[in-house]
Prior knowledge:
Helix content is 18%, strand content 22%. It is of the alpha+beta class. The strands form 6 sheets. A 5-stranded antiparallel β-sheet has the order 20-7-8-22-21. Strands 13-14-15-16-18 form a 5-stranded antiparallel β-sheet, sandwiched between helices. A 4-stranded antiparallel β-sheet has the order 1-4-5-6, with no helix packed on it. Helix 3 (362-377) crosses helix 4, helix 4 (389-408) packs across helix 6 and helix 4 (389-408) crosses helix 7 (459-471). The radius of gyration is 25 Å and the shape is globular. The two termini are 26 Å apart.
Amino acid sequence: MAEVVSPxxxxxxxEPGEVGRARGPPVADPGAALxxxxxxxxxxxxxxxxxxxxxxxxxxxxxxxxxxDISGRKHFYVHYIDFNKRLDEWVTHERLDRxxxxxxxxxxxxxxxxxxxxSRPGSPEREVKRxxxxxxxxxxxxxxxxxxxxxxxxxxxRRAVAAQPGRKRKSNCLGTDEDSQDSSDGIPxxxxxxxxxxSDRSHDDIVxxxxxIECIELGRHRLxxxxxxxxxxxxxxLPVLYLCEFCLKYGRSLKCLQRHLTKCDLRHPPGNEIYRxxxxxxxxxxxxxxxxxxxxxxxxxxxxxxxxTLYYDTxxxxxxxxxxxxxxxxxxxxxxSKEKESTEDYNVACILxxxxxxxxxxxxxxxxxxxxxxxxEGKTGTPEKPLSDLGLLSYRSYWSQxxxxxxxxxxxxxxxxxxxxxxxxxxxxxxxxxDVISTLQYLNLINYYKGQYILTLSEDIVDGHERAMLKRLxxxxxxxxxxxxxxxxxxxxx
Length: 494
């Protein structure tokens, strides 16, 4: 989720003791020359000086991805190991600690797409394995159909869910590192290459690992991209790429944009407006009927989504664009894409809130809208994995708040303890059962007692939830949604 510029607070933060951080080494003498055998090349690793979010100097380990010469002065494009790629940048040699340089292994080759030769020498420890923490508790996960009983105890509400013997607990991938690129729930054993074209990270070449667009002007905002996007090669050398904020077409200069605006009569995304409340509107766009807009939207989104995106084959997708209205028109805030037909119950393929609108509740509003569509369709849904780091945080928060709302709203009838099942929670919220269970585990609400699962809502959980809901001012009003789902299994409707 994007998703997708001001960096998010906490970006680049790592706990003390993590590999790669080296504080305070003396700055290498800029004039100290290296021998030809020790020249800094692509694939080398060494500490690089950077400022963290607390405006303090630190020396994390970084890899040199590219070297260029500007007016006789060398610049190095570095990726900070274990940091998110959006922090990658060009630096000069004054920021390099050359005393701790690690040279690449000559025999290591970096595979590239289409089987072409590696574009740079392999770096040390290139083969980084994705780690998934598997939890194997002595107790099974809660049954999806067993009712949960509710009774008060010491100011807390406890809900007992009967156990279903013989089932293993779902793998727990719910770490809280905000900068983990690969954080996700239920990572499949092999990447799914359909849908939003989940990228196979092992085949990244030097081109796609580097940001190629310097700056984007979109309406009244200037955005600094976080990741590579496959805009035409001739546009990557421009200081600023100009986009029409209504049709998203790109131009080489401000003059080109101004000339385009005299001809462009759009003041909102193409497609049908299916939701409006106040200044917020949602437009449904068919990737086949509005191919040009959909492709331009994907190119923009790829600047802020690293893991996955689709570029040109937009026919199998619907795009739901959220806008904010003023006297000049409907300005894009964010969007999510969705497969017309999904065999895995995905209700979101890619999701992004543009950086100027982040941390204002719009991301959660996009997620809530995707589940409102699922409710109208009579289905449960889940986002396509893996989620981006920011997307995962937004989904965890939305799932937690939605499920806690249901649990805290349960009331006893005739003195009996109210009961609810996992299946019922899933049906009410349209959240897939696996996501309901993983959220209960993430919140640490499940306790095993005398052959039953007890869901315990402590006062801290309740107080925290109530404070969070007071801040959540933006909500979807289902009465303002005008949406009729189509049966996309009939190809004639594509």
